[in-house]
Please model this.
Amino acid sequence: MLMLGSFSPAGAQPAEIFKPLKVGQHINITSVNGGVEVSLLDDGALPSGYVVVELGSTYLLVEDYVKITRSWIPVTSIVKVTHTRLPKSVR
Model:
């Protein structure tokens, strides 16, 4: 069996849109305009619905907070990545 195009080659760099994300970071995923928005708050300062497991060149692998479900999200489905930073006085 030959599989082409669905997996990133070993050592491939993560997609540029994933630049604000890190493995182990807590994120939220919301449906937006036929795609998804990935949002994070101060590098995961507050627990969210998902945790980043892997950043691929063509996908984002996330796991739900209770570690039951893993989801592979194609980079083409991601509409935007939003990083909200709180002022130091709020932390």
Observations:
- The radius of gyration is 14 Å.
- Strands lie at 26-32, 35-41, 50-55, 59-64, 70-74, 78-84.
- Residues 16-84 form one domain.
- Residues 1-8 have pLDDT under 50 and may be disordered.
